[in-house]
Specification:
DNA polymerase, domain 1; 6-stranded parallel β-sheet; Rossmann fold; single chain; alpha/beta
Length: 239
Amino acid sequence: MIQAVLFDLDDTLFDHQGCSREALAIVQDAHDVLRAMPFDALQRAHAALLEELHGEVMLGRVSVDDARVERFRRLLQAAGARVSSSIAGELAVTYRETYRARRRAVQGAAELMAAVKRHARIAIVSNNIRDEQEEKLQVCGLEAFVDALVVSEEAQVSKPDPGIFRIALDLLRVEPLQAVMIGDSWAADVVGARAAGIPAIWFNPGRAAAPDRNADVRQLTTLAPADAVVRMILEPHRS
C-alpha cells in the first residue's frame, strides 16, 4: 500500500519552463543581438547554460547571483554580441524579475496534491536550493500539502543519486515500496527513484518516447482530473 508520494517540483508541479520562456522573451526584446536570434535557438542556448551553471551552483563553485549574470554573459557571447558584465547583469535582473512575476503551478497541481494528501504523505525531492523552492511552493499555494522538502543544496547529493531519495523516505518514515516518485525527468527522477528501489511514474506531458522502452514505468501526461490521477498513483505496483 502506498503511504508516501514523492514529487519533483520544477516542470512537474511548478511551471518552470513556462515562466522561463516568458522571461526569456522579455530579455530577447531588450537587446538587439538577441532579437536577431530565432527564439527557439535562444531558448535552447539559455536552457543549456542554465543547466550547466546550476550544476556549478549545486557544487558550491559559484554563487547563485554570479551564476545568473554569467549565464547572460555567455548567452550574449554565443549570440555574437560585445560582452559586457553590466549589460549581462541588467539582463539577469530583467529575467529574474519577470520569472518571479510569472511564477505559477502546473495546471492541476494543487488539486492533485490535495487529493493525494488524503491518502499519503508528500515529499518534494528537488535538485535546487531551499529558499528558491520554498518560495515557489508558497507562491503557488502548495506548501500546506508538503510534509518534507528535500533539496540537493542541503542533502549534498543530487538526483539521480539514490541517496537523496532515501533522505525523503527516512523523513516520511516509509520503505521504498511504500512510496512512489513522480517527476518529469527520466534521467533524474525515474532512473534515480528506481535505483533507490522506489517505483516511479514519469510525468510526460509532451508525450515523448521513453528513453528505455523496456522499463516498466507508468506515465502521466496530465495532472488532472485529480481523482483519476490519484487512483492511478495509488494502484498496486506492477512487478
